[in-house]
Write a structure and sequence with these properties.
402 residues; alpha/beta; Rossmann fold; Glycerate kinase, domain 2; six-stranded mixed beta sheet; five-stranded parallel beta sheet; 38% helix; disordered N terminus
């Protein structure tokens, strides 16, 4: 259907259909909370609309919430957190597909700034969740990577799933990136028995390799508390682990795009679990059946906390716009802050854009009032729906709403 055809259909139909598919507004609202606020505003507008909420994510925080919003069951387990303390973590399951989000068990969000442990933080709890999903009957496991507190190369995950890593004296290593300087042997036989027949999908938008100046330790280590000397140590430790994995006959994927995701979990997933890669946003949008929802919508509204050049590298709202445009549906984006030029926004597929900072210039207040401001934007969209779709039918909105 052409966009003009959609405009004519919209004007003639009693209840226009709007799909609301935002990612989280970090520090303010989860994706479901942002979707609810926008929907509340849309439904309060002058024109009656049908609103379908479809919270999304890019493989990191919020991936389980996105799955739950479209019918996946949520399973909660007590597992080992990044520093060894117990945490309550969740994963999502439907049929034989499980979605396991690393941030639930091994996320930086679980630690206060003074609790970060760059050399010893472990992904063991992530492996516990994966193992529980497999034991429960999952044959396809989506690994949502992002927001990790760890730089352990995924070894904690592997140990929890049955791997045995030892030093030169055959003493088992307990996990943590710093320990990997001592790794001499890896036995994956029990792990491979356990995961035989399991399909793993690595959902991440990180393209960094495992090692070097663009590697996991150098790029992401400092935000996890790593000082300059720690970064150097972790990079050498990860290199040592990659060498040991290579002696086991596995593929040497230390240079592969995405190997550096989540402190090297990408490397472990690719090399040992033989995971296949997918963009995090792509995987999540497929799981929530976004294409089907967009195909039957008159308008899509998406958003996230901050739109900048990193967003253009496949973040969830940009993937939403790409898919919606492909099905002939216009996309409006709402962000806490927009750091892109109008031409960049149009090229990304957005027909109209709203910044919460344009409505509340004080950043702290804007974040605190995010739900209220999103509801206000939703009402603006609803009130202007006819004009919006007519304008879109004539090829877009030149600077409109910027």
């Amino acid at each position: 259907m052409t966009q003009m055809g959609r405009s004519e259909q919209l004007r003639g139909r009693h209840r226009p259909r709007i799909v609301v598919a935002p990612d989280k507004f970090r520090g303010s609202l989860s994706a479901p909370e942002a979707a609810h606020a926008l929907a509340r505003g849309l439904e309060s507008g002058a024109r009656e609309v049908e609103v379908v909420t479809l919270p999304i994510a890019d493989g990191g925080e919020g991936t389980v919430d996105a799955a739950a919003s479209c019918g996946y069951d949520v399973v909660a387990r007590e597992v080992r957190g990044p520093t060894g303390l117990g945490v309550r973590a969740r994963y999502a399951v439907r049929g034989t597909t499980a979605i396991v989000e690393l941030a639930q068990s091994s996320g930086l969000n679980l630690l206060a700034a003074d609790e970060r442990a760059p050399l010893s933080a472990s992904t063991y709890g992530f492996g516990e969740l994966i193992g529980h999903a497999i034991d429960g009957g999952a044959s396809t496991v989506v690994l949502g990577l992002g927001g990790s507190a760890t730089t352990d190369g995924g070894t904690g995950m592997l140990i929890a799933m049955g791997a045995r890593l030892t030093d030169a004296g055959d003493v088992p290593l307990g996990g943590g990136g710093g320990d990997l300087l001592e790794v001499a042997r890896a036995d994956f036989s029990e792990l491979r028995r356990r995961v035989a027949g399991i399909t793993f999908i690595l959902a991440s938008d990180v393209t960094n390799p495992l090692l070097g100046v663009r590697g996991s330790a150098a790029v992401f280590g400092p935000q996890k508390g790593a000082a300059e000397d720690d970064v150097s140590l972790l990079d050498r430790a990860l290199e040592r682990f990659a060498d040991v994995v290579g002696t086991d006959g596995g593929p040497d994927l230390r240079h592969a795009a995405g190997a550096g995701a989540a402190g090297g979990v990408g490397f472990a997933a690719l090399s040992v679990l033989h995971a296949r890669q997918s963009s995090g946003a792509t995987a999540v949008l497929d799981l929530v059946q976004f294409d089907e929802a967009a195909r039957h919508a008159d308008l899509v509204v998406t958003g996230e906390g901050r739109l900048d050049v990193q967003s253009l590298a496949g973040k969830a709202p940009v993937e939403v716009a790409r898919r919606a445009t492909g099905s002939g549906t216009a996309t409006v984006v709402v962000a806490g802050e927009i750091l892109l030029e109008p031409q960049q926004l149009r090229s990304a597929g957005f027909s109209r854009w709203f910044s919460l900072l344009d409505r509340e210039p004080d950043l702290e207040q804007s974040m605190a009032r995010a739900a209220e401001l999103l509801a206000g934007v939703g009402a603006e969209i609803a009130n202007d729906l006819d004009e919006l779709t007519v304008r879109l039918g004539h090829g877009g909105l030149e600077g409109y709403g910027a």
